[in-house]
Amino acid sequence: MILPVVAYGDPILRQVAEETWADYPGLEQLIDDMLETMYNAQGIGLAAPQVGHSIRLFVIDSSQVKTSKENLVVDPIKEVFINAKRITEDGGLIDYEEGCLSIPGIREDVTRPEQITLEYFDRSWTKKKQTFTGLNARVIQHEYDHIEGILFTDRIKPLKRRLLRKRLTGISRGDVDVAYKMRFPQKARPV
Question: Which terminus of the chain faces fewer neighbouring Cβ atoms within 10 Å, N or C?
């Protein structure tokens, strides 16, 4: 089932998400729904807080990107990350334009390390420790921020953030055209 994506301004996007376990009600269905929602919105990553669940869960599928962009190599993966913990972020800092399904219509350069190492559980509850580079590292860092209550707009230059304030307020009111279902904090029903 396609879920509404929570828009900028909703308090759930600012919460540090709680760990979850295999007995979380409807977890398997939530994972399936998150993947379906992400594909429907043409995204490459989605975190549980973005669909109204403040748990440490995110999904990515970088195979949606077909070619390398700038200096970020695409080595496609499709993965479910449960209770992820950042171990290290290493390498040089890279600027890259990011967007977010919760903040439609806004794209800005964000500086991030070129690699990240995480410990996490996959969908079958196998514990993993893995290092990711290139576009995968970028997407994982973006989604990991979501479970920490951080948005990509928090990582852009302060002047740019001030210039975006009016547009961000408009997004929270629903003053934005999107091709996918969203839940706006200043509206009564999803659009």
Answer: N
Q: What is the tens place of the pLDDT at every residue in 92-123?
A: 999 999 999 999 999 999 999 999 999 999 99
Give ∠ CA 62-142-44 in degrees, rounded to 5: 25
What residues are paired with 81 via a beta bridge? 58
Kindly give, in sequence order, each residue whose CB lies less than 8 Å from that of residue 26, ignoring residues fewer than 6 positions away.
Answer: none
The answer to whether residues 123 and 82 touch, using CB atoms and an 8 Å cutoff, is yes
pTM for this predicted structure: 0.93
Which CATH number does the domain 5-183 belong to among 3.20.20.30, 3.40.1180.10, 3.30.565.10, 3.90.45.10? 3.90.45.10
Active site residues: 143
